[in-house]
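new request in #modeling-help
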Amino acid sequence: MNGESLTQAKLKRRQLGLAVVIVLQCVAAVFFVGDVLVDLIQAPLAEHALLELLVTLALIVGIGLNACQLRRMLERMQVQDRALGTARGDLARIVESQFEIWCLTPAERDVGFLALKGLDAAEIAAIRGAAKGTVRAQLTRIYAKAGVSGRAQFAAWFVEDLLDGGLGPAGSNPRGLTKAPIQTERLDQN
Amino acid sequence: MSDHVEPGGRAAPEITQPWDPVVRLTHWSIAAAVIANGLLTKPGGTIHVWIGWAAMAVLALRLVWGLIGPVEARFASFLPAPRAAVSHLADLLCGRPREHSSHNPAGAIMAYALWACLAVMIGTGLVMTGGKSPITIAEEKAAVAAGDWSVLVTENAGDRHGDEEGLGDVAEDVHEVTANLMLLLALLHVAGVAVESRALGRNLVRGMVTGRRR
């Protein structure tokens, strides 16, 4: 949990790729701008120069759009980081170990955390930049793995742990472990 | 749970915010360009001019990113503040520097100084080459090598104006002095990073390489 999840690593790689493209585009744009300026000074309003000007402008607009997209990606990841960050602490450690017992994937873990924080599928989708349907499917899988009927029971599963086990991680962790078989049994009965 | 700090946990939320990929890429590209053009390439050679133009592009990108980028990359979060910089250096000498979410005040001044030097280098370089792109320079060199010396004639005709020649000489002097100044600043920058890394007990270079601050 101190490391970053797989989805975040993937997101970071994508951001780095986009940044590399932006840098390359900038280098290309500078040469184009220099070329266009020389052409325009030598033969103003020549067709060749005007076409080059158009291409250069298009390139610069493209760089701007890429930069904006990268910034949006960075901001989205920050929001997600912050949302996950506030969920961290003693409770988060219990939740994390339980998620591990339930064999949730890294993406499901992030969604599970956000769901526990009280966000609905649409809000989670907005934060993660994913489709609402994807998040709903992930939630369904999480509930199935946890053996609960839905969101309320999912949240109650952890709250129940806190109410009778106290906040100490040493006390509640083993409880979380002993609880898991009971849950799977219940799942089998269903 | 935010009051106590666990050994493996995070001390303050703001310092975990990483450098974004544009900041990292522009930083290392410019570092590479400075090393290449300051120490390795032949002054005035085609490669030297190529690298200079590429550095111009990267500098332009970084300056635009300083306006539209994320908070840590924006100029607004590290405006030059000489007094804060001096007090930061004093703290550093006492061995207890404060954490900053963007550049620290001394580092910010260094960043602005290096950018100013770069801009001067690029500007004087453009004056010295007559604003010709490296492609044009390479073409001219190829033409001269092939025996067509007409490009040199027009060049000399331009140089005959006393003013322009004077400007070229001044540009050359400024280019050279600024180059040495910038290499000196770069060394100072590296030394500053080393000292601050030791004082903070974490490797600041890693943040600029991987994007993770701790």
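bot summary: Residues 6-85 of chain A form one domain.
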